[in-house]
Design brief:
Length: about 180
């Protein structure tokens, strides 16, 4: 079953290494020094750091479009095909646009937005940076327990402060270069 799902992901273009997503740090910026840069999917959310050591995690590969080519309406989605699923459905990233919350993924078989969330607006700029409606307002957030485990959950910073107990810092996500 897992092999069949991985083959389907390959057919949809989601298993291509150039579609992997990484944490990107500017030279001279020590904010993310020592943090494993590969983005992982686990528990319906995105993570960086040592999360790859946990059995429920898998590398995050997405076939997100380029929002600089012709998507002035920001209609792009960020799909993901998880091999931990029991079905063949694609999941889509969603955010709560005006809040600071984790990037989550729709449940299986849900294809549209649900109350207060949006799955449309994701894209990639000319530098390969992942954006939402043309903006890069992503953060790596962690609780004290997650800090001890050296993992960060990826949040969208939509306006309000992060939930109590979370410490966040801005980050840039990029697709792998061709």
């Amino acid at each position: 079953m897992r092999l069949l799902m991985m083959v389907l992901a390959s057919v949809f273009g989601l298993a291509n290494a150039q579609n992997e997503v990484y944490l990107y740090s500017l030279k001279g910026d020590d904010t993310w020094k020592g943090v494993r840069p590969q983005v992982s999917f686990a528990n319906s959310s995105l993570w960086v750091g040592e999360i790859h050591r946990y059995p429920e995690s898998e590398r995050f590969v997405t076939n997100i479009g380029n929002n600089y080519e012709s998507d002035a309406n920001y209609t792009g989605i960020m799909p993901f095909f998880s091999y931990h699923q029991d079905s063949f459905s694609l999941r889509r990233a969603y955010i709560v646009e005006n809040e600071t919350t984790p990037i989550n993924f729709t449940p299986q078989f849900i294809s549209g937005d649900f109350k207060g969330t949006t799955t449309h607006g994701f894209g990639v700029d000319r530098d390969g940076t992942i954006t939402f409606k043309g903006e890069n307002k992503f953060e790596g957030c962690q609780t004290q327990q997650q800090k001890d485990m050296r993992i960060f959950e990826i949040f969208w910073s939509g306006g309000r402060a992060a939930p109590d107990g979370f410490e966040c810092r801005p980050l840039t996500l990029r697709k792998a270069r061709k």
